[in-house]
Design brief:
Radius of gyration: 15 Å
Distance between the termini: 36 Å
Number of domains: 1
């Protein structure tokens, strides 16, 4: 990460401090592992950041939920790019 001088695979909660979110993320961790099984993070506007920054935000925040990164499928694929998008809400019929 540019500001921290870290590659994505080195990002962890030990070097990605989120002091104001830490407690909320601990509750979220419990919900993910012992409750509903997922979480939605809102409030970041990905258009304001580079793709690398968005990937590192994802890795940093998710490190509070689980500290071991796993594979994504049986072939051993791991996250290699992160492209956050906003859906056209008008087409969602919300």
């Amino acid at each position: 990460m540019a500001g921290l001088g870290l590659d994505g695979d080195a990002v962890s909660k030990n070097n990605f401090p989120l002091p104001t979110l830490r407690v909320a993320l601990e509750y979220t961790c419990r919900d993910v592992h012992e409750g509903i099984g997922f979480a939605i993070v809102r409030g970041l506007c990905p258009d304001n950041y580079t793709a690398e920054d968005n990937l590192n935000f994802h890795l940093g925040i998710s490190s509070y939920i689980g500290d071991v990164r796993g594979v994504q499928d049986r072939q051993g694929s791991m996250i290699s790019a992160y492209h956050p998008t906003f859906a056209d809400r008008s087409s969602l019929n919300l």
